[in-house]
Each structure stands twice: as structure tokens, then as C-alpha cells.
Design a protein that fits this description.
By secondary structure, the chain is an alpha+beta fold. The chain has one domain. It has two helices and eight strands; from the N terminus they run αββββαββββ. It has a five-stranded antiparallel beta sheet with strand order 1-5-8-3-2. A three-stranded antiparallel beta sheet has the order 4-7-6. A hairpin with a 4-residue loop joins β2 and β3. The longest helix has 21 residues.
Length: about 140
């Protein structure tokens, strides 16, 4: 059983982003993201964004910063989010579909990078932040 003296606590002044991760973890994360960005640049030389979809059961699963007409919303995504390039596949994960134009530099990893990894759902891992989405039903 841990005591107050042995509990691991975050050091918010530390140079690392997360207190449990080592510099090697950070180097691996940077390496994967750099590889992904280079591959995206080669495969989509003229593109800046890609349309991706996410199935949700309610828009309230995300922090809504703004609501507009026609199902348009500005939301705050979590740190890392799963999207798909297939609208139909997104419909398997919720009653509503979020469609978003995701900048290529926000894509951390995607299904086309490595054989057999994230292939089944045409999955893209997207770095969080503020994004404009359109909410629609199947």
C-alpha cells in the first residue's frame, strides 16, 4: 500500500509532458507523428485537410463551444480522438455522425501507414483541440 511519502505525483515544472512517461516515450511519440506527417505530405501533396467522421450518441459527449445553423458546431476534442474516413463506418459507433475537415498536421496516425495497424475501421488518430463539425444522422 502506498503512503503519502511514496505516492507518485506530477511535477508540473518538469520538462516532460506527463510525469509517468520517460524521454524515450516522448521520442517515440515524436517519431511516429513525424513519420505520419511525412507520409501524408507524400500521399496528399496538394491537400491541407481531409474529411473525417466520428460516430457519437449525443453532441454532449464533447464540450460544445459554439452552435450554429445546419447542425454546425464548434467543439473541443479530447487529447487524442478516433475518426474514420468512412461515413458508413462512423455510423456503427453512434446515432449521430460528426463530419470535420481535419488539418493534416493534426493527424497523429492513420490506417494507411503500417500494414495491419488500425485497418479494420479506416481509423485516423487525431490530436485534440478546437474543431468545427457538422452533426448529422444516418
Amino acid at each position: 500500500m502506498a503512503t503519502a511519502a511514496t505516492d507518485i505525483k506530477p511535477d508540473f515544472g518538469a520538462p516532460r509532458r506527463h510525469f509517468c512517461l520517460t524521454d524515450e516515450h516522448e521520442a517515440l511519440r515524436e517519431s511516429i507523428q513525424t513519420f505520419c506527417q511525412r507520409e501524408l505530405a507524400l500521399r496528399h501533396a496538394s491537400a491541407r485537410h481531409v474529411t473525417l467522421y466520428r460516430g457519437v450518441n449525443r453532441i454532449g459527449e464533447h464540450e460544445v463551444l459554439e452552435s450554429g445553423d445546419g447542425g454546425r458546431h464548434v467543439i473541443l476534442l479530447n487529447n487524442l480522438n478516433s475518426f474514420t474516413s468512412s461515413r458508413e463506418r462512423a455510423g456503427e459507433f453512434g446515432d449521430y455522425i460528426l463530419a470535420a475537415e481535419i488539418p493534416l498536421d493534426k493527424i497523429f496516425f492513420h490506417c494507411g501507414l503500417l500494414p495491419g495497424v488500425l485497418q479494420g475501421e479506416d481509423e485516423f488518430l487525431v490530436v485534440g483541440g478546437v474543431v468545427e463539425v457538422t452533426l448529422s444522422t444516418l
